[in-house]
TrEMBL record, chain A:
This is ABC transporter domain-containing protein. The keyword S-adenosyl-L-methionine does not apply. PANTHER family: ABC TRANSPORTER ATP-BINDING PROTEIN (PTHR42711), ABC TRANSPORTER ATP-BINDING PROTEIN NATA (PTHR42711:SF5). It comes from the Bacteria. Pfam families: ABC_tran. GO terms for molecular function: ATP binding; ATP hydrolysis activity. It comes from Desulfotomaculum copahuensis. InterPro entries: AAA+_ATPase, ABC_transporter-like_ATP-bd, ABC_transporter_ATP-binding, P-loop_NTPase. Residues 8-234 form the ABC transporter domain.
Length: 307, 129
């Protein structure tokens, strides 16, 4: 139980369903402490990864360590220290909210009832309501309350704010801000709400087709990923695509749009050597960066396929 | 204390918070010596990561806009009084550097830059200044 071990470490993690890989050779490292956002288009493998970490699914190949433990061999010990909120809820529909809460309370040696009561009031989850009678959004909120109740070292939240109105979403964010303040706690959550992610994540990882394509501190990501629009007076430099930090060069009529990953200053110095070149640096939002990495121009993204 | 936080603006949130505190301090809306909200309290109120607020406070302290008293909190500094002459000149130099980048991109001549600066100094100093 070395405290220095990361919260999550996977090596070559693979899960295939009927021969189709949902997670494919995933090397993921989540440091202890802080908020880690797992991003990716639908079908990228986020939910499968979370279920694998909890041993709710068994890996086809690869290794996983959670809180310094083997996620398969020590899965019972892992579950005791991890709070989990599933993407879709499978509660006993006829159980009362209060009944379900006391049942869960009895399962854990530690349970913060004061906090659970406060969140139930905040989310308007009455103890006497039947779980099956709650709206889908409220069932998600209940699952969230159940996940944080035992004050786990690691929170695994699969789309905690999906299907919620802006007020509830904001309340969920406040809950996460409050929960993340506990010393040494790690929160991993998946989300499509990239503006929420920008508000609370310390680190973000992009998954695409079951693999990791990027994992970086959020501030660093926003600082490094830039676009530079350039108009060269003559033909552009032949080796432009090989310049440091250049990920991609797209044509915009007579202009070029350079996608950069770091090295902005170096690229600007080089551009200044071209007499008469006009250029502008464009900031990008997390959503811009996500779209760019998840498919960009090639549009391997699912838009269109689903329609 | 409320600050406008706009994720998806392409500007890091800590920078957005810094801008607003800096402006409030410069305009006198935040008085010198006034205490800023504790990091966790402000993070909860704005629904953002506490590390983001800490970063904003640290950078503002570095700029001399606020100061921190250990165990007591973060306070608004008196304008520029906390900076040594060397620090002031260093930060002026950084601002001039930015001016030159802009001037370069606008293809201004050195003469144009100088006369623009001189004109601004005359304006700010008033007639006969």
């Amino acid at each position: 139980m070395a405290i220095s071990e990361p919260a999550v470490l996977t090596r070559g993690l693979t899960k295939t369903f009927r021969g189709r890989p949902a997670v494919h050779g995933l090397d993921l490292e989540v440091p202890r402490g802080g908020v880690f956002a797992l991003l990716g288009p639908n079908g990228a493998g986020k939910t499968t990864t979370i279920k694998l970490l909890l041993n709710l699914l068994q890996p086809s190949a690869g290794e996983m360590r959670v809180l310094g433990l083997d996620a398969v061999a020590d899965s019972v010990a892992v579950r005791r220290r991890v709070g989990y909120q599933a993407e879709s809820q499978h509660f006993y529909r006829n159980t009362g909210v209060g009944e379900l809460l006391s049942f869960c309370r009895s399962l854990y040696p530690r349970w913060n009832q004061e906090r659970v009561d406060r969140y139930c009031r905040l989310f308007e989850l009455p103890a006497r309501a039947r779980v099956g009678g709650l709206s889908k959004g409220k069932q998600t909120l209940l699952a969230l309350v159940l996940a944080v109740g035992p004050e786990p070292e690691l929170l695994l939240l699969d789309e905690p704010a999906t299907g919620l109105d802006p007020l509830r979403r904001r309340q969920v964010l406040k809950l996460l801000v409050e929960e993340m303040s506990k010393e040494g706690r790690t929160i991993i959550f998946s989300s499509h709400q990239l503006q929420d992610v920008e508000r609370i994540a310390d680190r973000v990882a992009f998954l695409l087709r079951g693999g990791l394509i990027l994992s970086r501190p959020l501030e660093q990501l926003l600082a490094e990923e830039k676009k530079v629009r350039v108009l060269f007076p003559g033909p552009p430099p032949a080796e432009l695509e090989k310049w440091p930090g250049v990920r991609r060069v797209a044509r915009e009529g007579s202009r070029l749009l350079i996608s950069l990953s770091g090295r902005l200053d170096e690229v600007l110095v080089r551009l200044q050597r071209y007499e008469g070149a006009a250029f502008d640096v464009l900031d990008q939002t997390l959503e811009d960066i996500f779209v760019e990495y998840a498919g960009g121009e090639e549009s391997v993204w699912e838009v269109g396929e689903d329609d | 204390m409320w600050f406008r936080v706009e994720p998806g603006r392409g500007v890091p949130i800590y920078v957005q918070v810094m801008e607003q505190i800096r402006r409030a301090a410069a305009s006198g809306l935040l008085a010198p010596g006034e205490q800023l909200p504790p990091v966790r309290e402000l993070a909860l109120q704005l629904s953002i990561n506490p590390n983001t607020i800490s970063r904003a406070y640290q950078e503002l302290e570095h700029e001399g806009v606020v100061y921190t008293l250990r165990g007591r909190g973060t306070f608004v500094a008196a304008p520029a009084s906390t900076l040594t002459k060397r620090e002031r000149l260093h930060r002026l130099d950084e601002a001039v550097e930015k001016l030159f980048v802009e001037a370069y991109q606008l293809r201004c001549t050195p003469g144009e830059v100088l006369s623009a600066v001189e004109k601004k100094v005359r304006e700010k100093n008033g007639p006969g200044g």
